[in-house]
């Protein structure tokens, strides 16, 4: 057998025949890792086991004329969880390979275990390389549910396929891909070559056997662990579970989906008895007693395709030390600096000597540019210590010349604000032109420039 060595970037999965210090694709330094691949025998022993477990020939696919391909909507497995179904694009596709990534301790095992414990009528094999059967049982007791779940604690992929062949499950969970290894590859579990080989074998099995597989993968805060980045290329769907461990909210996002949109989002709340679906995020994210507080502005944001209202909190104070501090939680720091520069230059507020702290309540991380207007409003409100009326919501992106730029899905944002009892909403002028104001009971206030918004809010 003839081994060939290639180098693969652990950040983006790019490969190269020679070692290079810097990845030619993503430009990161020192990310190219050595990988051994078999040259003469492309189907490794474990892949052959995967094919055998699925009962398929090594070569099953044949070329088919495109007109003859049946392309009705793929059947979907209802996961009995509205948030998860939505993020998957309408349920789990049979024969698909899904990666659920997230930082350790965020709740990946909890989410998957609670889901499969409620999946009636399907035989699910839960393979754990991290916890003992007893630990899983204790967790399952907390989560409730009584579906047909088989727990198998094993880390060697060959044994896992042997078990799969004998129990013939409808769905397999691997918790986590970093703990699984195969004898076909020499390196240690969790290494790039192990992860690639194991995932490829699992993919073969999923595709030829029509069995869905869910892989759980850890990523660190910097997203730096080898596995998941490389895995993204192999799997059909990548879901990311995120949130701050100190807060109870968790967001499930799809960042790649061969069977659906990637703009969907699921929201959960971590409780002592598992994750609860949150159907009404706004009601949880807004605090009741914000009346009369300065430095608080409510933004009507959209994450994915879901509108919700969120509290932007700012604290502006005179810098105690020479240089002013800028600190943000849940919002991009560079964007805050840009918005502060706009306030200085276009509206004439002197903030250079001030510390500015910005926080998105609830521990959410928001990327919607429509939050700009509320960030500016919260900063000004704190700076002059004047509260914004509690029944005002806003949405608008702020440009470098202080103009308020249009935002997406304005109707949904307004409807959500109206539903939650807000009475006034500041919207970009450009968006307002397309609206039929008679459709809403909430007062719509179009604004063109930051200065105009400031007048509307603070008189
Ligand atoms: P876990 O699912 O083990 O995280 P991961 O698999 O992503 O590493 O969840 C870990 C945290 O969740 C742990 O700190 C305990 C907490 N938790 C709850 O708050 N409620 C629960 O019902 C369960 C099962 C866990
Ligand atoms: Mg876990």
Give the second-level CATH assignment, the architecture of the largest domain: 3-Layer(aba) Sandwich
What is the CATH T-level topology of the largest domain? Rossmann fold
What small molecules are bound in this structure?
thymidine-5'-diphosphate, magnesium ion
How many alpha or pi helices?
13
Rg, nearest Å: 26 Å
* Largest sheet geometry: 9 strands, mixed
How confident is the prediction overall: mean pLDDT?
Answer: 87
Structural class: alpha/beta
- Multimer state: single chain
Structure description:
There is one protein chain. The protein is α/β, with parallel strands linked by helices and 459 residues long. It folds into three domains: 41 residues; 213 residues, P-loop containing nucleotide triphosphate hydrolases (Rossmann fold, 3-Layer(aba) Sandwich); 176 residues, Ribosomal Protein S5, domain 2 (2-Layer Sandwich), CATH 3.30.230.10. The chain has a nine-stranded mixed β-sheet with strand order 6-5-7-8-4-9-10-11-12, sandwiched between helices. β10 and β11 form a beta hairpin. α1 packs parallel to α6. The radius of gyration is 26 Å and the shape is elongated. The N and C termini lie far apart (79 Å). The mean pLDDT is 87. Bound molecules: thymidine-5'-diphosphate (TYD) and magnesium ion.
């Amino acid at each position: 057998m003839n081994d060939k060595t290639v180098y693969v970037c652990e950040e983006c999965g790019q490969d190269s025949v020679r070692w290079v210090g810097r990845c030619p694709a993503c430009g990161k330094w020192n990310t190219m890792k050595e990988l051994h691949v078999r040259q003469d025998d492309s189907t490794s022993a474990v892949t052959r086991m995967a094919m055998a477990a699925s009962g398929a020939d090594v070569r099953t696919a044949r070329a088919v004329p495109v007109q003859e391909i049946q392309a009705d909507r793929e059947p979907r497995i209802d996961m009995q969880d509205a948030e998860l179904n939505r993020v998957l694009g309408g349920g789990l596709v049979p024969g698909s390979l899904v990666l659920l990534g997230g930082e350790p301790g965020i709740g990946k095992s909890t989410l998957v275990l609670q889901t499969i414990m409620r999946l009636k009528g399907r035989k699910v094999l839960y393979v754990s390389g991290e916890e003992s059967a007893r630990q899983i049982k204790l967790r399952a007791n907390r989560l409730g549910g009584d579906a047909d779940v088989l727990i198998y604690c094993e880390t060697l992929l060959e044994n896992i396929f042997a078990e799969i062949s004998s129990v013939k499950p409808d769905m397999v969970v691997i918790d986590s891909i970093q703990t699984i290894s195969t004898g076909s590859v020499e390196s240690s579990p969790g290494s790039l070559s192990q992860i690639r080989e194991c995932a490829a074998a699992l993919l073969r099995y999923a595709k030829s056997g029509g069995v869905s597989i869910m892989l759980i993968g850890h990523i660190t805060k910097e997203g730096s662990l080898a596995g998941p980045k490389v895995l993204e290329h192999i799997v059909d769907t990548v879901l990311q579970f995120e949130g701050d461990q100190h807060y109870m909210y968790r967001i499930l996002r799809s960042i790649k989906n061969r069977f659906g949109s990637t703009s969907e989002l699921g929201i959960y709340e971590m409780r002592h008895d598992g994750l609860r679906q949150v159907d009404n995020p706004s009601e949880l994210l807004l605090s009741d007693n914000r009346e009369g507080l300065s430095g608080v502005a409510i933004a009507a944001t959209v994450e994915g395709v879901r509108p919700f209202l969120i509290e932007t909190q700012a604290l502006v104070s005179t810098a105690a030390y020479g240089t002013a501090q800028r600190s943000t939680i849940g919002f991009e720091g560079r964007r805050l600096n840009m918005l502060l520069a706009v306030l200085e230059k276009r509206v004439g507020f002197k903030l250079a000597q001030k510390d500015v702290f910005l926080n998105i309540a609830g521990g959410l991380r928001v990327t919607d540019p429509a939050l700009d207007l509320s960030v500016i409003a919260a900063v000004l409100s704190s700076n002059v210590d004047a509260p914004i009326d509690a029944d005002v919501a806003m949405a608008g992106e702020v440009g470098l010349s202080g103009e308020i730029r249009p935002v997406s899905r304005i109707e949904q944002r307004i409807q959500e604000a109206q539903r939650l009892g807000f009475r006034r909403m500041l919207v970009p002028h450009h968006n307002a032109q397309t609206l039929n104001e008679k459709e809403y009971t909430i007062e719509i206030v179009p604004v063109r420039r930051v200065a105009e918004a400031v007048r509307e809010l603070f008189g």
